[in-house]
Amino acid sequence: MKTQRTDDPIKAARWLRLGDCVAFPTETVYGLGADAMNADAIAKIFEAKGRPDDNPLIVHLHSIDQIDRVARDLSPAAWALFEAFSPGPLTCVVHKRDAVPDVTTAGLDTVGVRIPSLPVAQDFLSACAVPVAAPSANRSGRPSPTTWEAVRHDLDGRIRGILIGPQSPRGIESTVIDTTTQPPVMLRPGAISFEEAQRVVPALQLADTVEQKQRSPGTRHRHYAPHAAVEIVDAEAAAPDRDAGYLGLNRPKRPGTWGRVVLCRDLSDYASRLYATLRQFDREGFTRIVCEPVEPVGLGRALMDRLTRAAGHVSGETSNDAAAEEGEAPS
Ligand code: AMP
Ligand code: MG
């Protein structure tokens, strides 16, 4: 299949409405969209990505006014969270309507819903006029794409089109909160911090038990991994190496003896550059990537979650099992 490119949201929406997959930019990462209500279109997403079919998709809406088409019986916590953080990088897991096909939610009777804020994503979703299911637009297991070039690298020839837009400003996926339980539980840390969300829903809890973590199927799989081996090491302890790239907030020792050093201004800069830098280091042929750890609070919690997964740690199983499951070579 020839993958077409456009910067016209209306043209990209036309491809989607014909039942095809289209990648589009959002403020978190680029998504691979298909009509959430069309099971055949959704199957193309899993096929193009090589995504395990037990991993549910997030349904994207252009406005909260569309929520009735996919969800029912929203809890007061869900309404409060949408009110506070939408449009934006928040996904609420809510009870699904029967009209949403099982493939979209991997057989769950709940659905994750998000309303992106990036203007071009808004234009695209409103032109689509249907709810759009979209995981990140990468091959399964790889770092999420934050540029259209990264989408092309992973999915050229496998999808109908790419809607070209800016680099994703947040650079890290949405925060996923299950609002169908009492208390609500944060299943995946993301661009909105636990602390910010807890100010809106004081009862909110972190998914800290294995049982809670298993409720977010995506967290069981290997994720975000470049080809190079990723290590998480403090700046002063990191051993320099010409075949290695370094990414962090603080300057490592002997910066001139690294293959490349990428320094970030602050946590949000680190988050927004993480995936693009992992991909850049792969392109440059490094065999080792050293990332500096950060304190796991606020946005740092999401950053450490992605770093530990990129380094091959998967909750509840070894990284090799997970890699085999996704048909990816262990790094
Ligand atoms: P991705 O779109 O690739 O960032 O992955 C979306 C993630 O959202 C999945 O891997 C799940 O962990 C989570 N998710 C989506 N829908 C649900 C749901 N109905 N219940 C629990 N977690 C969900
Ligand atoms: Mg993903």
Structure at a glance:
This protein has helices spanning 9-17, 39-49, 67-70, 76-85, 119-128, 148-155, 194-200, 210-214, 267-283, 299-310, 319-325, and strands at residues 4-6, 22-24, 31-35, 58-60, 71-72, 90-96, 110-114, 132-133, 161-163, 175-178, 185-188, 205-206, 229-232, 244-248, 260-263, 288-291.
Task: Give the tags.
single chain, 331 residues, alpha/beta, DHBP synthase, Rossmann fold, 2 domains, 12-stranded mixed sheet, 4-stranded parallel sheet, 11 helices, globular, disordered C terminus, binds adenosine monophosphate, binds magnesium ion
Polypeptide structure, described:
- The protein has helices at 9-17, 39-49, 67-70, 76-85, 119-128, 148-155, 194-200, 210-214, 267-283, 299-310, 319-325; strands at 4-6, 22-24, 31-35, 58-60, 71-72, 90-96, 110-114, 132-133, 161-163, 175-178, 185-188, 205-206, 229-232, 244-248, 260-263, 288-291.
- The chain is α/β, with parallel strands linked by helices.
- The chain has two domains: 4-172, DHBP synthase, CATH 3.90.870.10; 229-311, Rossmann fold (3-Layer(aba) Sandwich).
- Strands 1, 2, 3, 4, 5, 6, 7, 8, 9, 10, 11 and 12 form a twelve-stranded mixed β-sheet that branches. It has a four-stranded parallel β-sheet with strand order 13-16-14-15, with helices on one face.
- Helix 1 runs parallel beside helix 5 and helix 9 packs parallel to helix 10.
- The longest helix is centred in the C-terminal third of the chain and has 17 residues, at 267-283.
- It binds adenosine monophosphate and magnesium ion.
- Adenosine monophosphate (AMP) is lined by residues 55-56, 58, 93, 105, 108, 110-112, 135-136, 173, 176, 187-188, 215-219.
